[in-house]
Amino acid sequence: AQKVTQAQTEISVVEKEDVTLDCVYETRDTTYYLFWYKQPPSGELVFLIRRNSFDEQNEISGRYSWNFQKSTSSFNFTITASQVVDSAVYFCALSEADSNAGNMLTFGGGTRLMVKP
Amino acid sequence: DTAVSQTPKYLVTQMGNDKSIKCEQNLGHDTMYWYKQDSKKFLKIMFSYNNKELIINETVPNRFSPKSPDKAHLNLHINSLELGDSAVYFCASSQGRLAGYTFGSGTRLTVV
Questions:
Q1: What are phi and psi of A51, to 5 degrees?
Q2: Residue A91: Cβ within 10 Å count
Q3: Interatomic CA distance for residues A44 and B38, integer angstroms
Q4: How far is B11 from chain A (nearest CA, A)?
Q5: How many helices (H) and strands (E) does chain A have?
Q6: How far is A100 from chain B (nearest CA, A)?
Q7: Residue of chain B whose alpha carbon sits nearest to that of A33
Q8: What is chain B's pLDDT, residue by residue, as a tens digit (112 residues)?
Q9: Nearest to B97 among A44, A103, A107 (CB)
Q10: CB neighbours of residue A47 within 10 Å
Q11: Which residues of A touch B90 (CB under 8 A)?
Q12: Residue A44 forms contact with B (CB below 8 Å)
């Protein structure tokens, strides 16, 4: 069974600090997909990134970067020089390619990030 | 143009009532989903349809019945609403995993 754990329930930083959100996953499949979503106070879910299990290259998009480590089953997300607008709940999610359950996303419990001015 | 639209955005109703939430996507995706987000922000799959065929039906009370008249629509009907049904319900769609999932803006259901 697939599982996603985000151990940090809440993180508070001051603007311009760097912050890393942790994500650890469990799956028996060799092919799977990992995602990060942002949920700002307005409530919508915003897609940030997806990564397949065969691509361990780290990715950078502006102030966002992601570190995928299969050896530790982790897919961590770092925000550099955080801004108040980054305040949101961030979800890590997993989808198994070999599952009979179609394209179901299993979400972690989310990490609430508060960036103070 | 909203890619995945849900209506209504807010729904307040009394216990025992029957209500529906509608979802439409204009992305041409084959698969649509309903997710429930509880008060602690946990997100969990409820149903998934692929080309109008039910492929995922998680442990959800049978008071919840999804209906997909075509692949662009997936509605959620809830009978005999209970207090515990209060949550935010998200509709989503996808076209394979590589494209990611697109979520609607959510429907906040409050049962009083």
A1: -140, 135
A2: 26
A3: 14
A4: 15
A5: 0, 12
A6: 9
A7: B97
A8: 679 999 999 999 999 999 999 999 999 998 899 999 999 999 999 988 888 788 777 778 999 999 999 989 999 999 999 999 999 999 999 886 556 789 999 999 999 9
A9: A103
A10: 16
A11: 45
A12: yes
